[in-house]
């Protein structure tokens, strides 16, 4: 599977087209820097923006989207906007209310993708029922989950009538989650990577540097290309325009099978975020 350009999409199991590459805004605070980052990404060809209620920045994301659409003459339907319902709102009515709150802050009439942020035991089933309602009513184009392990998805499917279209999880060369990736592929669930660069912890890794030098690319570009060649959607975070441009310069080179195997071999099952089976928030 070769992704050719920044506008290339994967087809979710319900037929919706989702960009392979996008901008994440985790830990980016409300304000001008956020608005400008979103505008820069869209100006330079990004069509996917990923946020979440808990990030506390949906209003700025929405403002950036609005300004970028006006300045670049881009219709709303060309963009793919994702947000997520937070743990405190996991319930049927509370999830529906959370969705309305996110839409209001973003200033949008619909979301392209809405995710359950974490698999809180005993709560995600009712939240999923709310997502199914939103989907059936046409209020959201696709629904999915985040940080779900195999057993969480199996548990969800005992009561669900619609299979998740996306599972957004921590994924990088130190955490390759091969069993989960295989399960998602078998089930037709698109895997998406958050923290693809391991929050910067891989940017001086010798093997990655060697591969990057060989291709005359940065380590970050090599990792992001590795994501795409694994068939994993990726959403690196940056607020700097030059880095936003650099992160997306992935379509003029290809990692060899040997490169891919070397990077796969860096796996240590090491997380920078919480363990989905043991988190407390």
UniProtKB/TrEMBL annotation:
| InterPro entries noted in UniProt | AKR, AKR5G, Aldo/ket_reductase_CS, NAD(P)_OxRdtase_dom_sf, NADP_OxRdtase_dom
Identify the residues that the record assigns to the NADP-dependent oxidoreductase domain, covering every copy.
32-267
Write down what this protein is called: Oxidoreductase YtbE
Q: What would be one Pfam family of this protein? A: Aldo_ket_red
Report the PROSITE patterns cross-referenced here: ALDOKETO_REDUCTASE_1, ALDOKETO_REDUCTASE_2, ALDOKETO_REDUCTASE_3
The species this protein belongs to is Paenibacillus segetis
